Amino acid sequence: MSHKAHCLILPYPIQGHINPMLQFSKRLQSKNVKITIAATKFFLQTMQELSTPVSIEAISDGYDDGGIYQAESFAAYITRFKEVGSDTMSQLIETLTTRGYPVNCIVYDPFLPWAVEVAKKYGLACAAFFTQSCAVDNIYYHVHKGVLKLPPTEVDEEISIPGLVTIESSDVPSFVSTPESARALEMLVNQFSNLEKIDWVLINSFYELEKEVTDWMSKLYPIKTIGPTIPSVYLDKRLPDDKEYGLSIFKPMTNECLNWLNHQPISSVVYVSFGSLTKLEPEQMEELAWGLKNSNKNFLWVVRSTEESKLPKNFLEELKLASENKGLVVSWCPQLQVLEHKSVGCFLTHCGWNSTLEAISLGVPMVAMPQWSDQPTNAKLVEDVWEMGVKAKQDEKGLVRREVIEECIRIVMEEEKGKMIKENTKKWKELARNAVDEGGSSDRNIEEFVSKLLTISYK
Ligand SMILES: O=c1ccn([C@@H]2O[C@H](COP(=O)(O)OP(=O)(O)O[C@H]3O[C@H](CO)[C@@H](O)[C@H](O)[C@H]3O)[C@@H](O)[C@H]2O)c(=O)[nH]1
Asked: For ligand 1, which residues put their CB under 6 angstroms from it?
């Protein structure tokens, strides 16, 4: 056996969770750890792009023909995934052993805490991999412990949580602040249910970005920050072939995007994306469309094909007809190449954690327009703690109006405050690179994880 360790990686099967775990896997593989990613059959079927050096094997969530979309409810999906997932993960571990590749560690997404039981059954080492920020994990921890009583009753109620700046009720993750998200909140809180039984808690963040909260959480769990998990060419360049995540359920319109960007002036473009899941209300989509148009800036906007029908009537046609080539709407783009492009001057983002870390790593100022989940907390940190952007405020209906969007873009791209934000982005970009570069905080944590892994013998 040429590898001294073999990690079986279990992501929750959505793009925003697979991307960071895949990147972490590549990093481990470059350090002579064998990797197998366990992906659900449905996720594998939906993939539009697959080019990755790590090996991928199928397991089942019990819904092979439709994944979560086939399940009667979210609760039913999670319950069946636990049953069928535990069995098919066990079978995979046994198959890999028979093939001569025994596993000695499971790295699992804590959305799927049953993986710990599978690891214990086979006597394997075990690590949880949190795909969201340490700050957000800390908030869920306090809900888990019953310390944070929710939902907050008053709109602007101030909330103090150890390790965090004071936040308001509108800054907590949406699953915490809206009672109707009880089932989702249960899953997020359950992330902590098996943590005392495992060897490591890995977090896709970096120490310098979340110092106080990482120190606080480290008193509770064996935390290692190992991020940002971005393809290496955008950060430390130690893996020269690592240019893209390489596994996507959407097909990027790479040539269209890059050709268009190549024709735009430096720092002139607003790049707009809401990630892989967010669905905007039609009214919000309309406000955004007019906000972008009225800003008078050039924009590259990712509107997934399932969202396209919500665009204002004739919006796309008018864009195409306009002689000044102001805007391009695509169904998916190579986001890292776009953020790195010299024409891009601002990222209007939903503040999904991957997008936030990518903007930080590539030094792009943000207009934060959070929608749900962890995004409100990330937006708060972007605006008030890291000072890398401004948050577009919602009105009493929960919508961000066109004037607000226009104003935020202007602040970031034209005003004095925008210059300060730009300076800060340079600082954070440098710190992100230092963290993953040789001897940096995340690099040391990964090294320690791998050294320990190599001492664990196969059962
Ligand atoms: O046109 C696009 C748009 C996005 N991306 C990539 O898709 C990922 C999107 O991830 P993220 O920004 O985290 O957004 P979501 O897809 O919405 O991710 C989900 O998972 C994240 C991690 O748990 C959470 O932080 C989010 O709130 C949750 O919605 C990123 O790596 C982007 O680079 C592309 O490659 N092309």
From this structure: 15-17, 19, 131-132, 273, 275-278, 302, 332-333, 335-336, 352-355, 358, 373-375
Tens of pLDDT, residues 190-243? 999 999 999 999 999 999 999 999 999 999 999 999 999 999 999 999 999 999
* Domain-wise residue ranges, the chain: 5-247+435-455, 250-432
Which tens digit of pLDDT belongs to each residue from 71-118? Answer: 999 999 999 999 999 999 999 999 999 999 999 999 999 999 999 999
Residue from 229, 276, 302 to probe ligand 1 pocket by mutation (most atoms less than 8 Å from CB): 276
Whether 250-432 and 5-247+435-455 are alike in CATH topology: the answer is yes
Residue 242: active-site member: no
* Residue 457, pLDDT score: 66
CA of 102 to the centre of ligand 1 (A): 32
Q: Which CATH class is domain 5-247+435-455?
A: alpha beta
User: With 0-12 CB in 10 A as exposed, 13-18 as middle and 19+ as buried, what is 123?
Assistant: exposed
Ligand 1 center to 397 CA (angstroms): 25
Centre of ligand 1 to C-alpha 122, Å, is 33
What is the CATH architecture assignment of 250-432? 3-Layer(aba) Sandwich (3.40)
